Amino acid sequence: DEIGSTTDDLDLVSTRDLDVHGELKSRLQKFDELLPVQSLSVRNDLLEGRDQLVVSATATGKTLIGELAGIDRALRGEGKMLFLVPLVALANQKHEDFEEEYGDILDVSIRVGSSRIRDDGNRFDPGADVIVGTYEGIDHALRTGKDLGEIGTVVIDEVHTLGEDERGHRLDGLISRLKHYCETNSCDTQWVYLSATVGNAPELAGRLGAQLI
Questions:
Q1: pLDDT of residue 166
Q2: Which residue pairs from 8-11 have beta carbons closer than 8 angstroms and sit at least 24 positions apart in sequence?
Q3: Percent of the residues in the chain that have a pLDDT greater than 90, as a whole number
């Protein structure tokens, strides 16, 4: 496979110019400019609510794209953010990161698969502003009738899992259930899909109804 680079031509977005909530903007001031893939995403209407499939190498800043959309909407009272990952270890790490970065201004909760750990249920708050979860954990919450309230943003990390034999159909089912939940509850939800390794990116973007970045 060949990956072409267009970063030389890219006009990077200054963090001072971002039209986001003041609390989020103040936390972004430690950076002068967004990274290339983040700039591309913002210039292609991320902050206007456009659904996107973001495909970029590891450590190029994809997570912040989900945060820009989801944290901004949560702070503006436009629905909570779900940040979904395939593994419990990843969920724990993201939960820690979000708690540290935004725990003083937003309620952050975590939901992992009930079969994976002993959990009395008190740790998971379905009313939280930010919910980090594994695919299985959120799927279980939906299938057992948990009310997740208004969902403003769904960020699905490692979305290439759709192509895996063992877990692909589970993630496919979760996306369908979540979309049904959002439609049934009249949520104006933005969908952001992240991956470093999608092989058929244009095809997947079309299937997900998202713009390819």
A1: 86
A2: 10/36, 10/39, 10/40, 11/39, 11/43
A3: 78
